[in-house]
Structures are given as structure tokens and as C-alpha cells.
Amino acid sequence: MEYWKNITITLPGHDLKEIADQLIELNILSVSIQDLRDTKESDWFHYYDKSIKMSSETHSISILYDGKILSANIIQDIKNHLKIDKINIINERIIQDQDWLLRSQAQFPGIKISNNLQIIPPWQKIKNKSITNVIINPGSGFGTGSHPTTKLCINWIEENNIDNKSLIDYGSGSGILAIVAKLHGADKVVGAEIDRKAIDNAIQNCKINNIQIPFIDLNKTSIHKKFDILISNILSNTLIQLSTTFKTLAKKKLILSGILDKQVPDVINTYSDWIILKQKKNLEGWNLLEGEIIA
Q1: Residue-by-residue pLDDT tens, the chain, 295 positions
Q2: Do 77 and 161 share a structural domain?
Q3: Which of 2, 147, 251, 275 has its CA 20 to 30 A from that of 94?
Q4: How far, in Å, CA of 105 to CA of 124, rounded?
Q5: Mapping DSSP to helix (H, G, I), strand (E, B) and coil, where does residue 61 land?
Q6: 72 in a structural domain
Q7: CB-based contacts of 106: which residues, under 8 Å, 6+ apart?
Q8: Whole-angstrom Cα distance, residue 112 to residue 231?
Q9: What gap in Å lies between CA 202 and CA 196, rounded to an integer?
């Protein structure tokens, strides 16, 4: 049976992004950089135009190669190619070939969001028809309901009366929030996204759930209307950049998520010139902020 080897290494004193680019030239299948820190301490996104620093103090390099190649040979090839003497090996493992489709499906068995709503994949049969079942096909669009920020937003939708309200899901990803909002009575629901693949994934998810929601490609189209509710579950630094945009789109309520505890003050302060945001929910260190626009 075919198999592969995966080895994780650190290279003290080196810029791992540059190293990763050089390693691709060797006889290996893939290279990835992994953050060694706790999720809450990780700066796993770019701050505006400031790139992330990746050193061996904070990151490691994971290398995948043909299982028939000796690990010692791979290590020696890396040393020769990079002209270095020392490589720290953190972990080494063998990966056996398997049915990767079944494995990927097993990674998302479905998620119970509340007593009244669950997220299930399209390959799973609906067992409880007395609650709301939202079918999401995991794809390139962020949002299967597993991340705390997605749960926070879905819980907010469940707990608030959005009947006949217009709503825009800004940074819609898989479309999960727009779909849940539509199923909970929102009237005119729109998704907005910059990732074309995510939009295609969201459209597919709408079809699976037998509903229609338009998704706007923000690379091609500008939005010039207001919505009763604007909900956005994206990274805090992007939320900070979007304050002026959101001011033109939100009519009554603004719901923001994707914000860690330490990031809450900066987000609230950025929006304070036009709306008062309050910390409404917290789950595993992530927060949901809510603001009401008084006409």
C-alpha cells in the first residue's frame, strides 16, 4: 500500500517563509508552516500591510514526502540545500493511504448549535425533523458552525426577532449565517463576499437547503443600500478597516463577531464615532458585539 512520511522541524535563526519557498525545490510533496502558539496568542493573519513574522521560536515547518525515501536522506538534502548544519526534529510520522473522501466526511459529522438547530453535512440523513436542520457542504467558504464565532452569530439570530427584517451577511463565507437568517424569518437576505470560491460554495449550500439568497462579489459590485441588520463574522482587523463601509450599510442593528477578548476595546473604540457597540456574548475567548442605531 502506498504511504507517505511527514516530518516537522524547526530551524533556529531562520525566516521560515523564505525557507519554505526554498524547500519546494527539493524532492518533496508539500511544505506547510505551523504556528506553535496557542490560538489566542497567534497572529495568524496579516495586520494591514505588515506581514507575519515566522521564526522557529513561534513556528515550525511540516514536510510531506514519499514514504520510500529515508528521513535521514531528506534531512541531509535540506541541510545541503540550505547550507546549514543543525535541524531540530519535532515529530515524524507515517501516513498510510486511505479513502480520503470518507476521512474528510468523518471530520464533519454535524454540529448541534442549540436545542432547536443543528448543522449537518449533505451526506448525513436528517434524523430529527422537529428542529431546524441547516445543511452545509464544507468547502472553501468559512463557516460550518464548528467555530465559536459562527456559533455566537447563529445563537444571536435564534434569540432575536428578525421576522421581515432585511439582513446582509458581510463576509458570508459558506453562506451559513445568511441561510440561518432566511430560515428564521428574515425577509430580504443578502450575502457579500470577496472570495469567488466561497460564493460558489454558498450558492450550492442554498440550493441544498431549497432557498434563494443573492451573493454579491465585492470585487465586482458595490452595495448602495441599507439593511435593517448587518452581521459580519470576520477577523477583528478587517472589521476595524470596514467601519466606514458598515456605517453606510447598517440601518438599525450592527452585529460583529470574530473578535478575541484582547481585541474588543480596539473594535469598540473604532466604531464609537457613529455607534455604541456592547459586548453581548462570549464563547471560548471570542466575542459578539451588538450595536443599535438610533435614528
Answers
A1: 688 899 999 888 888 888 888 887 888 888 888 888 776 666 544 443 455 677 777 888 999 989 888 989 999 999 999 898 888 888 899 888 766 555 655 567 788 899 999 999 888 888 888 999 999 987 656 778 888 999 999 999 999 999 999 999 999 999 999 999 999 999 999 999 999 989 999 999 999 999 999 999 999 999 999 999 999 999 899 999 999 999 999 999 999 999 999 999 999 999 999 999 999 999 999 999 999 998 6
A2: no
A3: 147
A4: 9
A5: strand
A6: yes
A7: none
A8: 21
A9: 10
Q: How far is CA 255 from CA 30, 104, 155, 248, in A?
A: 39, 32, 12, 15
Candidates 195, 180, 200; CA nearest to 255 is: 180
H or E element, residue 10? strand 3-10
Spell out the residues 6+ positions from residue 28 whose beta carbon is closer than 8 angstroms to its own: 63, 64, 65, 74
Boundaries of domain holding 278 = 137-292
Is 0.85 surpassed by the pTM of this model? no
Residue 291 CA to residue 295 CA, distance in Å, equals 13
Task: Return the SS3 of 24.
Answer: coil
3-state secondary structure of 41: helix
Domain end: 97, 116, 145, which one?
97
Report the number of distinct structural domains present in the chain: 2
Residues 93 and 141 in one domain: no
- Of 3, 11, 2, the C-alpha closest to 93 is 3
**CATH number, domain at 15?**
3.30.70.120
Find cell 489566542 and name the residue: 40
User: In the chain, what's the furthest Cα-to-Cα distance?
Assistant: 69
Identify whether residues 169 and 259 lie together within a single domain: yes
Co-location of 152 and 251 in the same domain: yes
* SS3 state at 213: coil
**Amino acid at residue number 155:** N
| Residue 141 to residue 180: CA distance in whole angstroms | 15
